[in-house]
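[step 3/7] fold_predict: job queued, chain A
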Amino acid sequence: MKVMIIGCGGIAPAHIEGYLHAGEGATIAFLADQNTDRARALIEKYGLKDAAAIADYHEGLGKVDVVSICTPPGLHREMAVAALESGCHVLLEKPMAPSLAECDEIIAAAQKHGRLLSVVVQSRYITSIRNVIDMVKSGAYGRNLYSRVHSVWYRGESYYYLDWRGRWVVEGGGCTLNHSIHHIDLLLWAKGMPASIRAFMTNLNHHNSQEEDFSSALLQYTDGSVAEITSSLISHGEQQQLTFQMEKAGVCIPFQAHASKARDNGFPEPDEETAAAVRADYESRPKLVLENHDGQVKNFLRAINKSEPLIATAQDGRNCIELITGIYQSAITRQEVIFPIGPDSAYYTSAWRESAPHFFEKSTEVAAFADTTITNFKNKF
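[step 4/7] structure written:
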């Protein structure tokens, strides 16, 4: 299979390395970027002797089998639909698209042309995360009563100097959309879509951004269970955690296991036997050979070849956007949002971003950073 990667910014190296490490016979044929110097620099860095740098991705369509899209989210719909219509399978960086309407257009194109479409959620391909989620979904420890997502990151003021960041109509949103989407996907993987949501958002310390740098949401499910999502860009140390409190035990990512039993008066004492069993269950589960983007690219290529099922589907990507849209709708309207959000909703398209509240206005811009190194999940879980 021949591959084209569109967009040669900070996330492109993860895709390049994924195809190089996957071992599924894929060859990178094109790196497409309006700044062809960036494309040529990556070709040289990775020794991609069979790859060409092109400014217009359309030149590569019809000449490749697979397209990885690593551009800002506002460009995803146009590029993904064009690639699918040309007969390519598409691996689309998160977030899938800024709106549910655009997500549905992309999915419709994939279905019409019979191509495989996957949205990047590389955290599903981390052994420690996958094994905890599998334990939660197994039901072995009872019903999942309460889940908490603590998706906390640190970004300095200069993060929003990049010209396309910090603008509702270009970037699509702040930390909720572009950072917490990883953890939100894991919550959806473990629990599925909630019935309703209430949310709040603000901008605490990023004065070059119209968007939020903090949000908090409370989710309720049809079975009566609840979940909580906190997103931020002001958290020193980035101490991220997902917690799942089940009837018999509680588990966390990064992995921890706790179990309590009640004394006669209802107060707790440690249930060491159950906690030890939970830890043994975790330790006994298999380890992935390839993790992060490497693991997802390999699964994507193997799914194209029909040798294994696709773990991260287009619907998974859409579900993330629906939940995030619900957070924004509730935070802006200050009302509870009931799912699903359909085409009759004012929040189904991106039109609401035109009148979204501006916490601050953009005053400093650069077209690109010289340092494109980014934070990733490696060694965090």
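[step 5/7] annotate
The chain has eleven helices and 16 strands.
The CA atoms of residues 137 and 191 lie 8 Å apart.
exit 0
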